Amino acid sequence: MNLEKIYEQTRRMNVLFVEDDPQLRERTAEMLEDCFYRLEIAEDGVDALEKYKEYYNRKGSYFDIVISDIQMPRMDGVELTRELYALRNDQPIIILSAHTETDYLLALINLGVAQFVTKPIEYTKMLDVLYHVAHKINTASVNLPSKPSPLITISDTMVWDMESSLLLNDGNSVSLTKYEIYLMKVLSAKFEQVCSSDEIVNHFYLHDLDISSESLRGMMMRLRKKLPENALGSVYGLGYRLSSV
């Protein structure tokens, strides 16, 4: 495949590459650096997960693609994939695998990974996979609906500004704690829908904040007092819902 054609699809993308073998990591990274706008490298699954969360905290978005080996110390590619899908369930992941790693491959297929590159890596095959994954991402991006308004109307007088993370009542800012701002962000992302407790806890986890179910209930009670009556409700056994009143 024409390298220029591949680069046209990949040149704006940010990629995390995970490989524990130093020589293979160096050789593959040289090729990947020529394809992508930004390449971050991790030495194993634990290192990768830390850099994945750190990138999100810094950029407010995820890596476009994660490329990972399977057999690695501390955390293998299967466990890393589980952890990444828990944070972003549609994260594009390319797995580097040896033909002998059939048990790992079955686990990854069951998790939903569909793109594999066999070892030893044939770089023409690698480039072909990169092109098709990047093209799929770009096509999906083009077909996204137009950007919605950043303002969510909660009542006749109150709105939540998603861009500035401000709760406004009659144009005046309502004082929110750091934790309440995080709650509003995750609840407003699923406005008028039920947001599970697990989703909320994961959102806090991405920002290196640990909360328990009990503390979450307390935060919800305090946030509810700052919102119009019935704007923030709990759905028994499912989670919480922010809605217009």
- Elements, N to C (H/E): HEHEHEHEHEHEEEEHEHHEE
What is the rounded Rg? Answer: 21 Å
Spatial order of strands in the largest sheet: 2-1-3-4-5
Average pLDDT reading: 86
User: β content, as a range?
Assistant: 15-25%
Which spans of ≥5 residues are poorly predicted at pLDDT below 50? none
Structural class based on helices, strands and sheet pairing: alpha/beta
Question: Can you walk me through this structure?
Answer:
The chain is an alpha/beta fold. The chain has 2 domains: 3-142, Response regulator (Rossmann fold); 151-242, Winged helix-like DNA-binding domain superfamily/Winged helix DNA-binding domain (Arc Repressor Mutant, subunit A), CATH 1.10.10. It is 45% helix and 20% strand. The protein contains 9 helices and 12 strands. The strands form 3 sheets. Strands 2-1-3-4-5 form a 5-stranded parallel sheet, with helices on both faces. Strands 6-7-8-9 form a 4-stranded antiparallel sheet, with helices on one face. Helix 3 (45-59) runs parallel beside helix 4 (77-87) and helix 7 packs across helix 8. It is elongated, with a radius of gyration of 21 Å.
